[in-house]
Design goal:
This protein starts with 19 loop residues before the first helix and ends with a helix. It has five helices and no strands. It has a domain of 76 residues.
Length: 133
């Protein structure tokens, strides 16, 4: 005797179908195109993408686009966390803010030698230039 396979014993392994609204709610911010350009963070990330693309010379490859997107979003997140912490938000620890900053810095460095991020002048340099404000 062969065992009989019953339909009752099988389970559905495919997820149920979603409406477009439910699908968009579950799939958030997968690429830069999905960023909300109305939010400050989204606008800042897109501003950084344009800045990094302008700094790189020549044709930008797909891998470079991915690295630029990663560096821009990480930089925007790090800046937001630092400002929130400085404004008194205690849910972000100093350790987390520093870790975010260092991760963003590494991502920007990985973009290559073509990207130059302007560093603020040190106090010694500002005093030497006569701009002590």
């Amino acid at each position: 005797m062969e065992p009989q396979i019953s339909d009752r014993d099988t389970t559905k392994t495919r997820p149920r179908s979603f409406t477009r609204r439910a699908y968009l709610r579950h799939v958030r911010h997968r690429t830069l195109a999905d960023l909300d350009k109305r939010s400050r963070g989204g606008r800042r990330a897109l501003q950084l993408v344009k800045f990094f693309e302008a700094q790189l010379s020549g044709e930008i490859t797909e891998a470079q686009h991915m690295a630029i997107a990663r560096a821009a979003t990480m930089q925007a997140i790090a800046e937001d966390a630092l400002v929130r912490r400085l404004n008194g938000d205690t849910t972000i620890s100093l350790k987390d803010a520093v870790a975010l900053h260092h991760a963003a810095e590494r991502a920007v460095r990985k973009l290559g030698a073509g990207v130059k991020v302007a560093m603020p002048l040190s106090l010694r340099e500002r005093l030497a230039s006569g701009d002590g404000s």
